[in-house]
Amino acid sequence: MAKKIKRKTKRVSVKKSYGIKYLKLSLLATVSCVIVFTAGNILIKPELPCANSKTCTSDLSVHIDNNATGIFEGHTVTPPKINLKRELASAVLGASTSAGQKHIYIDLSTERLYAYQGTTEFMATYISSGKWDPTPVGNFHIWEKLIATRMAGGSGADAYNLPNVPNVMYFYEDYGLHGAYWHNNFGHPMSHGCINERLVDAKKLYDWADGPSGNTPGTEVSVCNSFTAPNTCVQNNPIND
Amino acid sequence: MIVIKKYIGLEALLFVIVGASVGLYLITYVKSQPVQFHSDAAFTSSQQVTTPPTTSLQATQTPVKTTIPSKTQKTSTTIALTTPIITNSTSQISSDGTQTVTVQTVQNKYGTQTDNIFTANETVPLYSKTLSQGESINIPYNTWSPDDKYFFLQDTTAAGQAILVFQANGQPFANGQTYLNITDAYKNYGSNDIFDQATGWAANNLIIIITKAPDGTEGTSYWYEVPDGSIIPLATKF
């Protein structure tokens, strides 16, 4: 009888020790999982898509083809002719209309662009931000100004190839402000991430904004989830350069 | 004893590997999700950017067109009755700035008003309509086609709004009509979605129509093809 009780007690204590052991091992597994997840979250940054998947790196310089036709949403489009001599007369530095820093704001909630120099509003107009790919939110500087270049990307019915995209100002990788001659639906998202403008607005802004010069960065561009004049730019998870 | 310790060590290693694998799977799943730069939801964080105060948003429409067709001036009190009085004028330029469409509202002799539609440099209206009470003709911001060949207007009447497309040169379409009525074409298409507005041009000859579903939610978007009048449903909502 005593032997029976002793055996039973021994079985119970063995079971208890196994239970504790597996509890500890499970805790160890959970801790490993948390460590790997946290490290991954910090170290691995998501790769940003290009605005123009086919010309993301290949067409970041002036590219003019006055004899080409373009394709957008399955329709042929005729690009504007670019007069290189006339356009090259514009300097890298834009015109100054008043004193103070230049700053461009994009309000994604209303699809509007506001440009200020110091205390003066230089222009306010409708734009088209990203529809098929989002426009990055954050604070950037114009890193390159191009009189015109080619932009291509998409696939299938969404494929596009647009020569002579005018008055391009890249502010973050190949995301830029530029004129759009293939649609006229400003005030509504229409792009693959860039900021589309009416041709007259793109030219006006291009002639005013500054590109980089020496150690001085180009005009600041703030892409906001919402913007309230005169000075409130709301940004959700901004990417800052 | 050593075997037991080795056994426990192997088990612990196995649990660590399993835990790490689960963590790796979770992080791969999270990072593979599309990058959300922004959303339409309310924002919880804000970043103040200090800029100087400014005046309110400038009007996006261009200033009043000043030239009008005028009759011979007379130096008497009858001038007020015979010379049209412009009570309102709005214009909108094309994307490249080379074209302008203007709506001039003119006070008529017997108290009625007429809206006259002009394109740039024209002194004879390509379209006129005498308005009843509460009626108006408006120029949408995206009125001009990208190639400047067409423009569309919003005609508001007691029966609702009508979207009218014109050729920029003022010529009638092949069917002899001065304008094409997009709203009528959509009604004839027979969709259950309710016409909301024409927002602009997706291409040189495609006008974007957005609609509301009968329950008030966003409906299907369409293209209206100029000039053949086709209504094309779209997979993407605009």
Please tell me what the overall shape of chain A is: elongated
Give the CA-CA distance, first to last residue of chain A: 79 Å
Series of secondary-structure elements of chain A, N-terminal to C-terminal: HEEHEEEEEEEEHEEE
Give average pLDDT of chain A, whole number.
87
Total separate domains of chain A: 2
> Main β-sheet of chain B, in a few words?
4 strands, antiparallel
pLDDT < 50 runs, ≥5 residues of chain A: none
Which range does the strand content of chain A fall in?
25-35%
List the helices and strands and how they pair.
The complex is a heterodimer of chains A (241) and B (238).
Chain A: H1 2-43, E1 70-72, E2 75-77, H2 84-88, E3 102-107, E4 112-117, E5 120-126, E6 138-141, E7 144-153, E8 160-172, E9 175-179, E10 195-197, H3 199-208, E11 220-224, E12 226-228, E13 232-234
Parallel strand pairs in A: 3-11, 9-10
Antiparallel strand pairs in A: 1-2, 1-8, 3-4, 4-5, 6-11, 7-8, 8-9, 12-13
Chain B: H1 2-32, E1 47-48, H2 79-82, E2 85-93, E3 100-107, E4 113-119, E5 127-131, E6 136-138, E7 150-157, E8 160-167, E9 179-181, H3 182-189, E10 194-203, E11 206-212, E12 222-225, E13 231-233
Antiparallel strand pairs in B: 2-3, 3-4, 4-5, 6-7, 7-8, 8-9, 10-11, 11-12, 12-13
